[in-house]
Amino acid sequence: MSDTQIAALEARIRELESVVDHQDERLDGLVRIASSLASSRDPRKAMKAMVTEISRLLKADRTTIYELRRDSQLLRGLAVQGEIALEVGIPLGEGIAGLVAQRNRTINVKDAYRHPDFDPKYDKLTGYRSQSMLCVPMRNPKKEVIGVIQALNKADGYFTVADEHLLVAMATQAAITLEALHLQLRLNISNAELRELSHQLRQKIHELELLYDNERAIAEAQDLDDLAGRVLEVAARVAGCELAGLFLPDDSGYGPLYLKGGSADSPLRCVPRVEIGEGVLGKTANRGEALILRNDDFERLGIPRIVGTKIDVRVEDAVTAPLIDGQRTVGALAFVNRNAPTHRDDLADRQLAVLLAGQLSRAVVRVTQRRSAKLNDRLQTIGRMLSGVLHDLRGPMTIISGYSQLMAHTEDIQERTDMADSIRSQVLQFNDMTREVMSFARGERRVFSRKVYLDKFIKAVKEALRPEFDDLGIGFEINHEANPTAWFDEAKMMRVVTNIARNARQAMGSTGTFTWSLSTTDDGHTLFRLQDDGPGIPEAIRETLFDAFTTSGKDEGTGLGLAIVRRIVEDHGGSIAFTTSTGRGTTFTIQLPGPPEETTPPR
Asked: At residue 374, does pLDDT exceed 50?
């Protein structure tokens, strides 16, 4: 055997000895890890000892063990090497560790920054530079992911397939140990303490849910009936009573009394007129103090065992609290006939009733104020709408006045007939405008699209608008290049065109030209372009131009006109847009659907 062959054989032997020594070292490390895990009773300490051993065996710079918190869907650090904040949570599915936990698959990369899911923000937070990374899931015996082990920056390059197999084995061992330790900690709590804590916790959760639901109900309730219906069912269920009652007297000393059980099918009972001082709830409102009523407390305090004279419910047990707004009592709340009062804390029930009464007192005041505010708003809105109607009636009134004067000086029967028809048309337009504004205020949307002959429609619009434009010397031009017929609600689109035209006339003052162009698109839609050469729309109102009560520069404007215009167009299934330029005018473009088979029915 030559010297070269002997040297190669010796090198091979040394290589194999190194591999064997490495494997022995890893086996010894696994034994140490197993021993440490078996002797530990604290999950965090056990995992802390494990990361140190993993880093040594894999020649990694750092190792981190994350535990998956299913309740929050976050990875939380149980053990980590280096100065990294353990409390920073990694959302499931984010970053490499989050991706491994979500997909239940190992990820081994030579350069973490080249992986598309790597999140460098943790490096920025800690000043650390991640490079090679091996990340494996921790699985319990049910193959469910309960955490992740992540090793960073191998000293001699990058992590190998053998490293993966070793870390997977250690992750399985760590997962089994972690599950066992958590189970042991849970078992150390006595069953009696667990039941008691669970009972108390459920009760507190129910009470918190009640308070939370009440806050939501307070925000959503539209009136007192709605408020009582939302609150009393949950209150009766949480308090464990037969009925929850609410009494809301007004300044006259009378008011409605509501009762409801804790089940969803329990009806809301209401006695519309109960006197303060009557029954348990009336006495509580009269006294202005919270009460716990059991056994002979009723006779001792002079309180009858009834909810009200018109309610056939005998009260055997009750906890009550007044609803107080400042120094004024606005009502009373009661838990009537608790199902198991001997197993409950009276003081806790009283505290719950007082808290709930405090919420309800604010709610009652808020609902009352909201009702008053709505009434005031409605009155203001009606005033604005009437102002708008009166303003829009000026145009038709001018036409009616003119034709009336002409009729008085003409003997021609045909002319008088034509003028009478025009006057009748303007009166019908009065009715249409009034109904349109009122429908807008009520939120109604009704359009009756039908076949319209555009020549006839254009003639009606010209007849309505021409006198107003001629009186001011403003040009009114029409370019009709559309098909002879279109589909829309003729009366409502008359309102749209005249409203935009009158706005343009007011904006142009005493000079200028208004142009109405009609055309038909290739797909059968009808286009209206209404253009003026006035000063343009002020920038301050361009963004809110179609909102109700948006107006600028018109002393008598109501701001309802263009809001109604947009609603009419949209109810047709069409669209409206505008372009404007300061000093150069404004153009409104309206697109209406074609024949019915090509349109979506109006909402």
From this structure: yes
Q: Is 215 helix (H, G, I), strand (E, B) or coil?
A: helix
φ and ψ of 226, to 5 deg:
-65, -45
pLDDT in tens, 40-58: 556 677 778 788 888 888 8
Cβ neighbours of residue 61 closer than 8 Å, sequence gap 6 or more: 55, 81, 152, 153, 154, 155
Mean pLDDT (the chain) is 79
**How many Å apart are CA 197 and CA 36, to the nearest integer?**
33
- Residue 284 domain-assigned (yes or no): yes
- Domain count within the chain: 3
Structure tokens at 203: 């009760």
pLDDT tens digits along 254-282: 889 999 888 878 888 888 888 888 889 98
Q: Which amino acid is at 595?
A: P
**Bridge partner residues of 260 (DSSP):** 244
Between the alpha carbon of residue 550 and those of residues 261, 380, 543, 546, 563, the distances in Å are: 49, 15, 10, 7, 8
Question: Ramachandran region of residue 240, left (φ > 0), alpha (ψ -120 to 50) or beta?
Answer: left
Instruction: Dump pLDDT digits (tens) for 532-573.
Output: 998 988 888 888 888 765 555 554 444 557 888 888 898 889
For residues 11 and 181, what is the distance between their CA atoms, to the nearest angstrom? 47
Q: CB of 149 within 8 A of CB of 174?
A: yes
Name the nearest CA neighbour of 208 among 393, 5, 352, 40. Answer: 352
- The SS3 of residue 428 is helix
Within a domain: 523: yes
Is a pLDDT exceeding 80 seen at residue 129?
A: yes
Report the sign of the C-alpha dihedral through residues 465, 471, 472, 478, in that order: positive
Query: What pLDDT does residue 538 have?
Result: 87
Bigger pLDDT: 213 or 565?
565
pTM reported for the whole predicted model: 0.35
CB 482 within 8 A of CB 516: no
Domain that holds residue 161: 11-187
Kindly state whether residues 172 and 205 are assigned to the same domain. no
Q: Which 3 state secondary structure label does DSSP give 358?
A: helix
Q: Which residues of 342-375 are buried (b: 16+ CB within 10 A; e: fewer)?
A: eebeeeebbebbbebbbbbbebbeebbeeeeeee
Residue 250 DSSP one-character state: -
Do residues 206 and 138 share a domain?
no
CB of 125 closer than 8 Å to CB of 118: no
Domain ends where: 313, 338, 370? 370
272 assigned to some structural domain: yes
Q: Which of 137, 131, 130, 132 is nearest to 167 (CA)?
A: 137
Nearest to residue 545, comparing CAs of 588, 488, 501, 591?
588
Bridge partner list, 323: 331
Tokens of 450: 């039908």
Written as six digits, the tokens of 19 are 């591999």
Mean pLDDT of 186-215: 63
